[in-house]
Amino acid sequence: MASSKDIPLSPATRLVTSGRDTEAQKGFVNPPVVHGSTVLYASAEDLHAHRGEYQYGRHGTPTTRALQKALTDLEGPQCRGVGLAPSGLAAISTALLATLKAGDHLLVCDNVYRPTRLFCDGLLRRYGIATTYFDPLIGERIAELFTPATRAVMVEAPGSQSFEMPDVRAIAEVAHARDALVIDDNTWATPLFRRALDQGVDISIQAATKYIGGHSDIMFGTIAANARAWPAISEGIRLLGVCAGPDDVFLALRGLRTLGVRLAQHQTAGLAIARWLEARPEVARVLHPALDGDPGHALWTRDFTGASGLFGVVLKPAPAAAVDAFLDAVSLFGMGYSWGGFESLVIPFDCSSYRTATTWAPGGPTLRFHVGLEDVEDLKADLDRGFAAFNAALRG
Ligand SMILES: *Cc1c(COP(=O)(O)O)cnc(C)c1O
């Protein structure tokens, strides 16, 4: 078989080809799942010189190397390395601990994943790092929030509950002019639909628990960094002892191989359901940046090459009992938090109690949908049953 190394390939093809070393795997397509801590050295000389492709289980195995190569390729030409973490939240906390020190100031987008806020307000604060939250729509006005101590800005585009879209390129320009790093939780789009490192981001994080794993069966996180940030990230990972279990590493790599077809389907089905919901009389607004009327649509068009299957819905004012009747009546949409798997989900959310820079007042109950890989007509019929129960509860 000829090598495809020098042929220019699209990202969808590279998802399939990257990180594979058929020869080293004795012909097998996939790497082995290496369960290993101890690595033996061939001689005393090798031992003293730390000579050997692998030296210690925590620092890498043939399984982690294969995944890291594939992820580095997916994150694009700016990527200098990808660290692996046991969860998305561990990837976020590791990135922040690795790049900040006591006395530093951090700017965080008001719509970030809630446990990210809890980490900043808890452990980072205790370690002498102060956080200021900012309006996701702040754009270049973020300059006004910088202090001489501001060392990093953390963003999420779009926020995974409220779906506001920060202008990450504008924020990055301001941050870089002030020598601060930009850390981006890119879980919603994945690097396949948005190459954050090409857009001024220094550290691109994935809760790989979601779309990269893709089957609701692993907890996993990745930290991709450019040349500027990689030395701090790789040192932080070593000092903190962050690593991931071999079975999860293998499942992340296995998920990555089908990410292209899965995301394409999540996008198509997600938009079909989002548009169907937009036309429902019970719905006030759909929060989905790939929809024409969405306030984040222009930025989505500029920065993204696709949309995932996660979006929000604001219902017209209705009592909680009607919303609960909807949730109990649907059966293909399960109630659960961790999205990105093959199955559809719905969960009520209310971020009003964990906003500090902005007020969240959507004007009605809010639901977050994840559209999975089921047939779209089956999903619509399921939602129809949900709305029938909702309307029956409204009539009391
Ligand atoms: C789920 C999620 C995380 C955390 O990932 P875990 O693997 O559950 O720790 C972080 N950011 C976003 C946007 C998420 O959706």
Give a structural overview:
This protein is α/β, with parallel strands linked by helices and 396 residues long. It folds into 2 domains: 11-108 and 139-154 and 168-257, Type I PLP-dependent aspartate aminotransferase-like (Major domain) (Aspartate Aminotransferase, domain 2, 3-Layer(aba) Sandwich), CATH 3.40.640; 260-395, Aspartate Aminotransferase, domain 1 (Alpha-Beta Complex), CATH 3.90.1150. 37% of the residues lie in helices and 14% in strands. It has helices at 11-17, 44-48, 62-75, 88-99, 114-126, 168-177, 190-193, 230-240, 246-257, 259-278, 297-303, 320-329, 376-395; strands at residues 81-85, 105-109, 130-134, 150-156, 181-185, 203-207, 221-225, 283-287, 310-315, 345-348, 366-370. The strands form 2 sheets. A 7-stranded mixed sheet has the order 1-7-6-5-4-2-3, sandwiched between helices. A 4-stranded antiparallel sheet has the order 8-9-11-10, covered by helices on one side. Helix 1 packs antiparallel against helix 3 (62-75), helix 3 packs parallel to helix 9 and helix 12 packs antiparallel against helix 13 (376-395). The protein is globular and about 80 Å long. The chain starts with 10 loop residues before the first helix and ends with a helix. 45% of the residues are buried. The model has no long low-confidence stretch (mean pLDDT 96). Pyridoxal-5'-phosphate binds at residues 87-89, 113, 156, 160, 185, 187, 207, 209-210, 219, 221, 338.
